[in-house]
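Hi R.,

As promised on Friday, here is the backbone we talked about, encoded as structure tokens. Could you run it through your design pipeline when you get a chance and send me back a sequence?
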């Protein structure tokens, strides 16, 4: 949780993005909600909003993959509810402070969406600074992807994805807390 050195800092919103929004990004959203006690009595004071979406609309309206939910439940996350949706341009880029891609293809798709919206005058230049690889926050290297377990076909891929999103989620939360401390000390 935040300390007195982060109290009063500006809250941030986080959007997790994968391809179809039924495996990796909802898993990351569920884990990050759990890490921050989002919506609970002791919600992390630096978190304003958490959501997930996909770059494609293949599964819009669907629940997360059953293996995603099973792995979350096995790790104590039993109350996660979600319906898949596609990223909204420009709305999501205006609403969220962090837009986190699960892999390089997602990152490129997000970047290209921003560039198209900028050309049409819907977004400004600073929006690209919001788009990151999730691996930048606790990855083994800054471009570490979360490999799509949908194509793995087995539960093991979902367990590996869980380990990654947990590690990166903790790293993201630490980053947010450090940024809040830094901005507070600059006041």
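Update: got your reply. Pasting your designed sequence below so it's all in one thread:
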């Amino acid at each position: 949780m935040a300390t007195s050195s982060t109290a009063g800092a500006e809250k941030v919103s986080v959007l997790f993005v994968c391809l179809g929004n039924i495996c990796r990004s909802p898993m990351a959203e569920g884990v990050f909600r759990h890490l921050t006690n989002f919506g609970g009595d002791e919600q992390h004071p630096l978190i304003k909003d958490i959501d997930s979406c996909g770059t494609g609309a293949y599964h819009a309206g669907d629940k997360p993959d059953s293996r995603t939910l099973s792995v979350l439940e096995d790790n104590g996350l039993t109350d996660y509810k979600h319906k898949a949706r596609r990223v909204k341009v420009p709305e999501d880029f205006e609403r969220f402070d962090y837009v986190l891609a699960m892999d390089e293809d997602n990152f490129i798709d997000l970047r290209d969406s921003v560039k198209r919206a900028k050309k049409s005058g819907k977004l400004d230049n600073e929006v690209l600074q919001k788009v990151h690889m999730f691996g930048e926050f606790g990855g083994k290297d800054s471009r570490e992807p979360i490999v799509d377990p949908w194509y793995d076909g087995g539960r093991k891929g979902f367990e590996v994805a869980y380990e990654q999103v947990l590690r990166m989620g903790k790293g993201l939360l630490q980053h947010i807390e450090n940024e809040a401390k830094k901005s507070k000390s600059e006041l």
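One thing I noticed while checking it: DSSP finds five helices and four strands in the chain.

Thanks again,
M.
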